[in-house]
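Translate structure to sequence.
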């Protein structure tokens, strides 16, 4: 009986340790990998990119802070226009949330 209890306790401990190791997605790394090539590393597209992609958002602009998370989430998940690809098949909901949180840090206050 004691042996079974020890095995159960050891398994529970391992499962609990695994849960503690799980990390939240890194919004900055996701942005660098999926967004920076068009939106710029600091959230502001280059003049050439802004010209090529009319209407591309400048995440570094203060006005971006007024855009609701739901609008950003929709654009990320479903794409927008011809140039913004849909990422719903490539990013998890948690990754999108982390990405939006990071985008919020780019706006100049």
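Result:
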């Amino acid at each position: 009986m004691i042996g079974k209890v020890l095995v159960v306790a050891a398994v529970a401990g391992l499962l609990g340790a695994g849960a503690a190791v799980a990390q939240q997605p890194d919004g900055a790394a996701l942005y660098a990998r999926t967004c920076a090539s068009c939106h710029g590393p600091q959230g502001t597209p280059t003049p050439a990119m802004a010209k090529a992609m009319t209407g591309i958002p400048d995440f570094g602009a203060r006005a971006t802070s007024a855009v609701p998370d739901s609008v950003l989430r929709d654009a990320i998940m479903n794409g927008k226009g011809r140039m913004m690809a849909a990422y719903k098949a490539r990013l998890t909901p948690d990754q999108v949330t982390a990405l939006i949180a990071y985008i919020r840090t780019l706006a100049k206050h």
